[in-house]
Amino acid sequence: MPTPKNKKLTAAEKQIMYRDARITGKYDNIWQTVGKCCFCDMRDKYIFHEENGIVMTVPLYAYIDGQILIVPRRHVRSVKDLTLEEWETIRKFMYLAKKLIREVHGIKGVQYIQKDGATAQATVPDHIHFQVMPFDAPDLSIWNYRALKNTPIENAQLYHDQSAKLTKLAKRFSAKYQESLE
Question: What is the phi/psi pair of residue 15, to 5°?
Answer without folding.
Answer: -60, -40
